[in-house]
Amino acid sequence: MVVVVAVFALSAQTAEFSLDALVDGLPNIADFVGRMFPPDLSILPTAFSLMGETIAIAVIGTVAGVLLALPLALLVPRPCSSRPGCTMLRGRRSTSPGPSRN
């Protein structure tokens, strides 16, 4: 508990936290929160369009990464990949839950 308080105090000092500034800013906080209600739903079509664009960019980046990685994977020395399926199975084993222990 002492460590948590010490880390919090150090963080507050580093961030130059001021309780006076927080209290002085309460009207601004109330104004900010007040402007959130009622929410402006007219921006949803734009937001969904931009989310779709973001997902498309992520898919393109992932495919490009895979296409760049495949030729490099073929350059791996034979001792590193002695049995083709071994690496894949080892990776699968590390992510499976394994036998249950009662």
Feature tags:
102 residues; 70% helix; 0% strand; transmembrane; membrane; Phosphonate ABC transporter permease protein phnE
How big a fraction of the residues is strand? under 5%
Biggest sheet record: none
Q: What is the N-to-C succession of helices and strands?
A: HHHHH
Alpha-carbon Rg, integer? 26 Å
Structural class designation: mainly alpha
Q: State the shape.
A: flat
Q: Which residue ranges are poorly predicted, with pLDDT under 50 across at least 5 consecutive positions?
A: none
For the secondary structure, the number of strands is: 0
The overall average pLDDT, rounded, is 85
Distance between the termini: 34 Å
Tally of helical segments: 5
Question: What is this structure's SSE topology?
Answer:
Elements: H1 2-14, H2 19-24, H3 26-34, H4 44-74, H5 84-95
Q: What does this protein look like?
A:
This protein has 102 residues and is mainly alpha-helical. 70% of the residues lie in helices and 0% in strands. The longest helix is centred in the middle third of the chain and has 31 residues. The protein is flat. The two termini are 34 Å apart. The model has no long low-confidence stretch (mean pLDDT 85).
Structure summarized in a few sentences:
This protein is an all-alpha fold. It has helices spanning 2-14, 19-24, 26-34, 44-74, 84-95.
